[in-house]
Every structure is written in structure tokens, then in C-alpha cells.
Amino acid sequence: MLTRSARCSPDQFAICTILVHTFLCRAPIVLHEIRTADKGPYFLPPGRAVSSINWFIYCIPTSETCRRRAPDTHGIYCELGVTLDNVHKRLLDTLKTGVVLLDENLCLRSMNIAAEALLDISERKAQGLFIGDLLLNGKKDIREMRNAVANNSSYTMRRAELDLVHGKTLSVDYTLNTFEENGKTQAILEISSLEHAARINREENLQQARETTRELVRGLAHEIKNPLGGIRGAAQLLSREINDDELNDYTNVIIEEADRLHNLVDRMLGSRKPLEVAATNIHEVLERVRNLVETDGLGDDIKIETDYDPSIPTIEGDREQLIQATLNLLRNAVQSIDDSELENSQGHILLRTRILRNVTIGPDFRRLAVSVEIIDNGPGIPPGLMDTMFYPMISGRPDGSGLGLPITHSIISQHKGLIECESKPGETKFTVILPIDFESGTD
Questions:
Q1: Is residue 46 part of a domain?
Q2: What letter does residue 407 receive in the DSSP assignment?
Q3: Which of 46, 118, 211, 315 has the fewest C-beta atoms under 10 angstroms from its C-beta?
Q4: Apex CA 307: angle with CA 304 and CA 313, to 5°?
Q5: What residues make up the domain containing 54?
Q6: pLDDT of residue 398
Q7: Count of structural domains, the chain
Q8: What tens digit of pLDDT does each residue of 257-283 get?
Q9: Is 188 contained in some domain?
Q10: Residue 258 shares a structural domain with residue 305
């Protein structure tokens, strides 16, 4: 157990707790908050992660001997099996914050894995590049960074929009801290993605709304099903006593509508059947779904193309449930194109898979995950539906039930994955991210 002393700041104690867990348990964790016996919770503010790591390195013995006891410099003892040859790189790679090391000319010297993912470039390719070569339309940001390096000071920018050379736009908070090495000024650039935080908040809000709706429907289901059962039973008894075929047609309507309402309530509640988890080939799932949609009568004006990543291994999941989830998404794409009546243009749907590395799904950090994208060139989703389309009974079509997307979201959530949507006129993309290992929180 680690105990914080008066000489150890809350930030230092928080990062130390993470690092001890990482090295001793050989497993990464995602920090939401750190609680201690004296105060808490503690959060790491922007610009403090790297300084706390440097403090932690100061506590590590300079000896090359492994499993050596660190001195009680700040009231914290820890047993670590590390050497100084790779400790900085290993510690930085455990962070979800992008960290970039720059020289006095703002040329890249090194970056961690999170920075590679944010800037969409590998450390090897970025080595020696001027930071301005990666950030387009960033003259003001570069000027402020130069001033910070020249004055040996720090600079923080909130909600910055960074345009990358690959066409990607980042919404981030970043902090530039300077230090001296061998008489030369160096800089550490910390980049925190606002999109990542917004995605987590959006997913949590959606999950809470779904649970609230589910409880509401569960409470109403009992009150609805009981009278439906009585109505259906009475209609059956009445049909046995009536010999007139025309009157029997009316009783059949009553029975059929009672069954329809009963099934509607069951669909709103979702499946109560537990997942039958087994090794599943995601490409077999997608091909099954594609064949089903094409068999239903896909017109010649809509073309479905595939772009699969053959390196994706089998995942753990319920094959039938995953077929149902992706079938709902693909059918929505087809219906969107059919409703749009594209003029002088063919409807196009793309099924694309990719392997993702070092992603966070909810509270879990995953070394490997699978991304499934369903992209169509329909008219797009109305902006007013973007925040509510996963709620039950919400549909953008007059004849829609509003249950397809909620069912899909429920299935993906049961698989500990997430679903996202980006839409604009002419392109709508649904992205499903699934962990490779269903059971483990850290792959």
C-alpha cells in the first residue's frame, strides 16, 4: 500500500500509483481518479503528467541492478524491476496523453504511442521533422511555441483546432514545457484529445439514457401485457362461439394486433438471452449480412463494396447477435439511399474493417480492437437526430419503428464495445469498435 507524505504532491502520488501498478502488475490502467486515505479524488491537470514522471524517475535508483529498493525520498517505497535505459520510454508509452519531445528548433526528436495515434504518423517517420510540417494552418501555434522556447517558459492552449497533413482535424488541449539538456533548450509538448473525452462522456450519457428507458419500459410492460393477454384470450373464446366467417375476421384482427403489441414490448426490452460467446470471424459475419441484404432484393442502383483487413484475428463474441447488429446498420444504409432517390448517381455502401491498437473503450484499455465501418453516400442523418438516434422509438423515417439502432447499441454494449456515427450530406459512417478479447479488461 502506498501512503502519501506531506512532501509528496497529490499529482506526484497519483502518477506514482499508476506507474507502480504498471511495472509490478505488467498491465496498463486508465486513470479516471485516484482516491487516498487523506484526501481525494485527485485528477492530473494538463501539463503535470510529464513533470510527475520526471519526479518519479528521480526516485528510481541509478544502479543497473533490477529489483532494487528505491530511497524514501518523498515518503514512498516501491519495488521496481526496471533500468534507466528504457524507463522513460516505457513510462511515456503508458500515458494516454500524447507526448512529443522537440529540440530548440521545434523539430521532433521522439514521441510516445499516444502521440503517434493523435498525429497519425509513426515516430520513425516523424524523426527530425519540423512541427509545422505536421500542423497545417498553425502559424499562430508555431509562433507561440517559438516564443516559449526562446523565453524558456511554458505555453498552454485550450480547445485548439489542429489540421494535420492527412486531412484530419484534431480538437485538443496542449501544453509546451521547456527544459535544458547539455546547455540547449528542449521542449515537451503534451497533447490531450478533447474528442476522446467527449466520446467517453457521450457513451456514458447514452448508456445512462438507455438504462433509464429500459427501466421505464420494463415497468410499463407488466401493465401492458396483462390486459393484452385478457383481450387476446377473450377474442379467441369469442371466435369459437361465432360461426360467421366475416365476424371471425374481426376477432382475428384483435388477436393479431394483440400479438403485435406484445412483440413490440419484447423488442423494446431487448433480448434477455445471455450471449453465447465463441471465437468469431468478423468477416464471416459481414459476408453473411451482405448476402442477406442482397437476397432481400438490393436494386441495381446500389452497390456494396468491401475493404477487409486480412490481419484481423478471430474475436470473442456471439455470432448471431453480431449478425443482427450489423444487419440493422446495413439495412439502414440501404433504406437511406432508397429514400434519397439519388439523381445521376449510384448508391454506394462500403464495409471496411481495420485493426486498432491502444484504444480505450469505456473504462477499459485495449491493446487490440477491431473497427467495423459501414459507410454510405445517402443524404445523411438530420442534425436533430444525431444525439437521440440510439433512443427507442426515435426514427428519421415515417415508417420506421425506431428500434433497430437501440437494439444494435444494446448488442454492441453487451460485447463491451462501442458504436459511433459521423454524418454529413453525401456520407454517413457508423463505426463499431469491438475488443479482441471479450473477457479481459486489458488485452
A1: yes
A2: H
A3: 211
A4: 125
A5: 1-95
A6: 63
A7: 3
A8: 888 888 777 766 666 678 889 999 999
A9: no
A10: no
Does 382 lie in the same domain as 338?
yes
Tally of residues, the chain: 443
Question: 46 and 81: one domain?
Answer: yes
Beta strand extents in 168-266 (DSSP E only)? 169-181, 184-193
- 291 with 371, same domain? yes
And the C-alpha cell for 124? 520513425
> For all residues of the chain together, what is the average pLDDT?
76
Q: Is the peptide bond before 41 cis (omega within 30 degrees of 0)?
A: yes
Residue 142 lies in a domain: no
Return the C-alpha cell found at 223. 401493465
Does residue 178 lie in a domain region?
Answer: no
Pick from 258, 304, 271: which is nearest to 403 by CA?
271
CB count in 10 Å sphere of residue 161: 12
The pTM of the whole model exceeds 0.85: no
Q: Are 164 and 119 in contact (CB under 8 A)?
A: yes
- Calpha distance 298→289 (Å, rounded): 13
Question: What residue ranges in 137-295 does DSSP mark as E strands?
Answer: 155-164, 169-181, 184-193, 278-280
Answer yes or no: do 223 and 292 share one domain. no
Q: How far apart are CA 392 and CA 414, in angstroms?
A: 17
The 10 Å CB-count burial string (b at 16+, else e) for 203-220 is beebbeebeeebeebeee
